[in-house]
Amino acid sequence: MKTQVTDIQKRFSSWSLLNIYTILIVSFLCWVTFFDSNNLFVLKAINEEVNETELQKEYYEETIERTKQARKDILNNAAAQRDYAIENHYRQFPNSDVYVPKVKSKK
Questions:
Q1: What whole-number distance in Å separates Cα of residue 69 and Cα of residue 75?
Q2: Would you list the domain boundaries of the chain?
Q3: How far is residue 28's CA from residue 26's CA, in Å, rounded to a whole number?
């Protein structure tokens, strides 16, 4: 029995679980994972927020491009200017018919 214990001690004498470096590494990893102000859970939440913000950035860049194209079309086309004025600013032009629908109120 004593020979088995000495064999085990010889095998793990250079690197044991009680080695100071092992204890420091494990404690550092625990600190970084759970107790630090920038622990893994906070970093995961920040990464999710960054990904969401990048998606919003792509959406707004696409919207800006569509708006620039629509503006270019409106500035270069008289019919498009007229349509834009009618649809968005409720502009009335001479010789045009305006229909105002009546809304029945519930009483």
A1: 10
A2: 38-93
A3: 5
